[in-house]
Design a protein that fits this description.
single chain; alpha/beta; 6 helices; 5 strands; about 25% strand; globular
Length: about 140
């Protein structure tokens, strides 16, 4: 049973957060701590300079609201919003916050994953803790 579980989420069509939360609860010790995390991918500065600040702020608020409502589906969970490369940020967060298990959803891989690798695949390869992938 795991005591400190990180659950990375994305806000794409068809993502079943409840299924991932059920797996996390099944793997959890009775006193487990859950952290639901979303990573905002870093936008290159040259592109970001073309987006008005109020649009950037509103986009961030929208993601914060979505993260809060998703986290509320797992009572007692904390939420964390981070920025950076998703795979690297998840692995680094797990390392710095003493996470003992990551429960992450994965899409069905396509041809592009052969060359690039999905976020879940990167997490599986580089995390120092247990990783459970939910399809």
């Amino acid at each position: 049973m795991y005591k400190n579980i990180l659950i990375p989420v994305v806000f794409e069509e068809g993502q079943d957060h409840l299924a991932v939360f059920e797996v996390a609860k099944a793997l959890a010790a009775p006193d487990a701590k859950f952290t639901v995390m979303h990573v905002l991918e870093t936008v290159p500065a040259f592109a970001l300079a073309q987006v008005p600040q109020d649009v950037q702020d509103q986009a961030r608020k929208t993601v914060e609201t979505m993260l809060a409502s998703t986290t509320a589906l797992l009572p007692g969970a904390a939420s964390k919003l981070a920025s950076g490369h998703a795979g690297n940020t998840i692995v680094e967060t797990a390392k710095t916050h003493n996470i003992d298990c990551i429960v992450i959803a994965s899409h069905i891989p396509g041809f592009e994953d052969f060359f690039l690798g999905s976020t879940a695949a990167r997490v599986v390869r580089h995390a120092k803790c247990a990783v459970h992938v939910v399809r």
